[in-house]
Predict the 3D structure of the following.
Amino acid sequence: MNAMIKVARYHLVMPVMFLGLPWATLALVFAVDVAQGGDKAFRAGLAVFFGMFFVTGVQRIGRWLPFGLTLGATRRSFYAGTALLGVSMSLVSGLVIAGLQAIERGTGGWGLSITFFRVPYVLNGPWYATWLTSFVGLAALFVYGMWYGIVNRRWGMLGLLAFIAVQVLVAIAVSFVYSRSGGGALMLRPAGGHPATLSALDLTGVIAALTVVCLAGGQATIRRVTV
Amino acid sequence: MPQMAGLDEGGSLFAQVAERLAGEIADGGLAEGERVPSSNELAAFYRINPATAAKGIHVLADEGLLEKQRGIGMFVATGARQRLLARRRAEFTERYVQPLLTEAARLGMDTGELIAMIKDASSEREGVPV
Amino acid sequence: MTPAISATGLTRKYYDQVALDDVHLAIGAGTITGLLGRNGAGKTTLLRILGGQEFPSSGSVQVLGAAPAENQDVLRRLVLVREDQTYPDYQGYPNFKVSHALRAASFFYPCWDADLASSLLEDFRLPANKAIKSLSRGQRSSLGITIGLAARAEVTLFDEPYAGLDAVARQIFYDRLLADYADFPRTVLLSTHLIDEAAALFENVVVIDRGRVMLDTAADGLRGMATTVSGPVLAVNSFTGGRPVWERRGLGSQASAVIVGQISPEDRERARSLGLDLTPLSLQQLVVQASGGSAGAGAVTGRASA
């Protein structure tokens, strides 16, 4: 635990960098949305914010790992400490998003009918569902990004291509299996009751499972990385 | 690199440290009962490894020229100066006389010439304060 | 007494070459050891493995009693200063500054001395507020040295840490290293190819050539191990007759030869009478011999193990 704390403190030696970038980007995209005038059509602005968490995950390995290893962090503790930090940030950010969503609903789209923090089917339910889905989504992307960073460090460009190729193959195989089994279970559709929440929870569950896969994979891959 | 305050790079460093200290004692620069610089001080001065400096000190300590006072440091032992001067006297022939004779032989000078030279040089010095 | 650093049968292979070949090593605690050898000899690979940053292909390594790789207990008592350290450098705002690197180091090293770090920054004229991305090669080296010394780690490894440093700055490094080592003894392993500069720092030296250890001996034992005899040809030949000779050179009626072995007082007297000049080989010249032709290497190795 102590080792992970040290790693987290190392990452936060420049706090602005860790937290600032995604939120600054969000503010920028939001401002663009406002400037373009609000209409009810959802423009996937929030996706950029989520994407930034992926980028941050990649960077935290790519740029911060070498000096971290020099300072004496073990690869295991570096991974765990970084992942812990990313997951914590996701938890907090998810809450903030839920809060902003509530405000957006309350003000009727910031007084301009903007739907920025309300994503149909996925982020449109009660605040706790929004929090959960955002949290899991952000954490997943962060940890996913970390894995990319590690693969790149270990095997370079070729490794990245192979990594992506494997994922594509797995995705094809999985969808093949599911279409064969006749289940439309993974397709987002409004069911009875609370439509958006139900499908969102399904999705959240899948993403959570994928996050665990990324965590395990990243931990295993970082074992023998050299800088 | 001229960084070792005159120590010769090629030769044994600790032996040179010992020689320098012995020279200081023989010349009276370090009096009997006076504290000798510590190995750390010598190391810093000569810019060498402290263990090497310590070795040089131990050479003299082993010969009884220095004695240790626990917790304070190394001190010049009584009689050290006499012993060093006696040693220098014993070595004088080998160190100075032999090379003199060798060089004189090279130049084809005989012993008589050599002695005359020494007398002349010595009387020139007489009036000059050392 | 257990050595602070030891290697047994250590081998490291890459696809196309063998970087380290069956290396056996034992370095005593609290000593300063020079790791010497030509470029590409394997010094960097050895240090990276000792620092836990690389893994052996076969054989084992122990630092402070345990394998260093992925070992928290060892790693926090060890610091490796690399020639090519990359930092999380960002350009523009906000940027990763020298002060950030030092702060990060303070989290990881239990014996970190911030005052020493500040004073070293001053000595090297390195502003704490400067972005690492914008540092010159020499300034990056100064930063590495600052971290390496201020960490006060029990085992301090330096891998040619002075790239881009001028002679004055290098002297500052040697002086500060010696001074802090005198006050806070630790095990130091310093790799360098500027041997004569650093020679006086070393208690022991390890010479590596092509991944193999050629020499592992006390520095002082090396000094005076070989001597250049120069003067008239006939006199040189007469003097060196029957002794192992590493090298002979001649020009007209003058000649010089490098002979191995201690020179006795009788030898000196004889040399004097023959009109010969005797100059001991410096550490650098000895290492060149050890890293050079097989005859030289064999002679040096043989002598050292005697």
